Automatic annotation (TrEMBL):
<feature type="transmembrane region" description="Helical">
    <location>
        <begin position="414"/>
        <end position="433"/>
    </location>
</feature>
<keyword id="KW-0472">Membrane</keyword>
<feature type="transmembrane region" description="Helical">
    <location>
        <begin position="196"/>
        <end position="223"/>
    </location>
</feature>
<protein>
    <submittedName>
        <fullName>Transport protein</fullName>
    </submittedName>
</protein>
<keyword id="KW-0812">Transmembrane</keyword>
<dbReference type="GO" id="GO:0005345">
    <property type="term" value="F:purine nucleobase transmembrane transporter activity"/>
</dbReference>
<dbReference type="Pfam" id="PF00860">
    <property type="entry name" value="Xan_ur_permease"/>
</dbReference>
<feature type="transmembrane region" description="Helical">
    <location>
        <begin position="340"/>
        <end position="362"/>
    </location>
</feature>
<dbReference type="GO" id="GO:0005886">
    <property type="term" value="C:plasma membrane"/>
</dbReference>
<keyword id="KW-0813">Transport</keyword>
<comment type="similarity">
    <text>Belongs to the nucleobase:cation symporter-2 (NCS2) (TC 2.A.40) family. Azg-like subfamily.</text>
</comment>
<feature type="transmembrane region" description="Helical">
    <location>
        <begin position="163"/>
        <end position="189"/>
    </location>
</feature>
<feature type="transmembrane region" description="Helical">
    <location>
        <begin position="78"/>
        <end position="97"/>
    </location>
</feature>
<feature type="transmembrane region" description="Helical">
    <location>
        <begin position="374"/>
        <end position="402"/>
    </location>
</feature>
<feature type="transmembrane region" description="Helical">
    <location>
        <begin position="243"/>
        <end position="269"/>
    </location>
</feature>
<feature type="transmembrane region" description="Helical">
    <location>
        <begin position="50"/>
        <end position="71"/>
    </location>
</feature>
<keyword id="KW-1133">Transmembrane helix</keyword>
């Protein structure tokens, strides 16, 4: 026990083993929904949901434990919402790329991730991105996720007259979504730990009672086989043989890059771990999530990144890596509850997506809306993601506009060379994908 306290510096951080374990459990309960949401999202691409379930649990466990042991941060990791939607809906469905090839794209992106992390290029790029645009990316992904939830739950549907409109309230499953959203919202307002997870459970119970959801075949079983997805990414690397797929790889790299960077900084600030506006041991933190992303691609899931729900564990006192390690161990335990996968319908996960969107949108308060040279590119990122139904397109719009508005405001010297380089990169990106 003393060695644990010493390694994780519990005394210096003014915390205890008991508090860290409680924080880890709280974080797990807050993000356990990803075990059921991720298979649902990636399943839309044709992937085996059972295999994705197991891959999600193992990748989340590995990333969280590495983050706890190496970086010693109370930050858990898991397949990121938003980028998994990009994987399924934009790449596989929109671009008609087979999921095997898309998974290979994640694998290649993770290799690049590790390389640029080793040479500390990742840290330099993070420093070059203005904080306002980082906040806009996080907030934009939040709106995109919320839009997916509203659509999956039937609250928002396609409308020929107005493009989108309010869904039919005569459909029972839509009311299931509304119930879940109201319950989850109340729990979150009252700061109940695991509010998202509890809301999902309540929605499932109502669905089972009303017959809108079929009864599960069991409760506990062996973890589903990884065979349908295991090492598929490695075996299909050769399929990345076109400029379009190279752009897909770069998109996985860029989106995961910015999302994880923003989340790490935000959570470290909440936990009081920032020092002189710098993140101590940031290299180890980035190495942890890069390794988890690599392992996740080989197991069979979309990119892994730091999770904003870690804020729940931090809120109850989690300050050390022991919190993240606890969360990781609980993900391993969670693998044996796969029979519940069938009862987690899109109406059950929709409220979770909407609430997570709200959590991510909180970063919008960090944007300097009073300066138009900042507000315009930030707004294009935030609004561009849900309206274009693409995270990458939203980022591209903002990164292209940012140097233009800064030069117009006679602040061009404040724009880093890296941002000017990204200006041309994203112009090429938009041209290739949309011409």
């Amino acid at each position: 026990m003393d060695s644990i306290k010493s390694y994780f510096q519990l005394d210096q951080l003014h915390t205890t083993v008991r508090r860290e374990l409680l924080a880890g459990f709280t974080t797990f309960i807050s993000m356990a929904y990803i075990l059921f949401v991720n298979p649902s999202v990636l399943g839309a691409s044709g992937m085996d949901k059972g295999a994705v379930f197991t891959a999600t649990a193992l990748a989340s466990a590995l990333g969280s434990i590495l983050m706890g042991v190496l970086a010693r941060y109370p930050i858990a990791t898991a397949p990121a919402l938003g980028i998994n939607a990009f994987f399924a809906y934009s790449v596989c469905i929109g671009m008609k790329v087979p999921w095997e090839t898309a998974l290979a794209g994640v694998f290649v992106a993770s290799i690049i991730f590790i390389i640029i992390t080793i040479f500390k290029l990742r840290e330099k790029i993070i420093d070059a991105i203005p904080s306002d645009l980082k906040a806009a990316i996080s907030g934009g992904i939040g709106l995109f996720i919320a839009f997916l939830g509203l659509s999956d739950g039937g609250l928002i549907t396609a409308n020929k007259s107005t493009i989108v409109g309010l869904g039919s309230l005569s459909v029972g499953t839509t009311w299931l979504t509304i119930f879940g959203l109201v319950v989850t919202a109340i729990l979150m307002v009252k700061h109940v730990p695991g509010g998202i997870f509890i809301g999902m459970v309540a929605t499932v119970i109502l669905g089972l009672v009303t017959g809108l959801i079929n009864m599960p075949t069991g409760l506990v079983s062996a973890a589903p086989s990884l065979k349908p997805t295991f090492m598929v990414a490695f075996n299909h690397v050769g399929d990345i043989n076109s400029l379009q797929l190279v752009v897909v790889v770069l998109t996985f790299l860029l989106v995961t890059f910015f999302d994880t960077a923003g989340t790490l900084v935000g959570l470290a600030t909440q936990a009081g771990l920032m020092r002189d506006n710098k993140l101590p041991r940031v290299g180890k933190a980035l190495a942890s999530d890069s390794t988890a992303m690599l392992a996740g691609s080989l197991l069979g899931t979309s990119p892994v990144g730091a999770y904003v729900e870690s804020s729940a564990g931090i809120a109850v006192g989690g300050r050390s890596g022991l919190t993240a390690v606890t969360t990781g161990v609980l993900f391993i335990v969670g693998m044996f509850f796969s029979p519940l996968l069938g009862v987690v319908t899109t109406q059950v996960t929709a409220p979770a997506l909407i609430i997570v969107g709200v959590l991510m949108a909180q970063s919008l308060k960090n944007i300097d809306w009073g300066k138009m040279e900042i507000a315009i590119p930030s707004f294009l990122i935030v609004l561009g993601m849900p309206l274009s139904y693409s995270i990458s397109d939203g980022i591209a719009l903002g990164f292209i506009m940012y140097p233009i508005t800064m030069v117009a405001a006679r602040r061009g010297k404040e724009v880093s060379p890296i941002m000017y380089l990204l200006f041309f990169v994203f112009i090429g990106f938009m041209w290739i994908l949309n011409v």
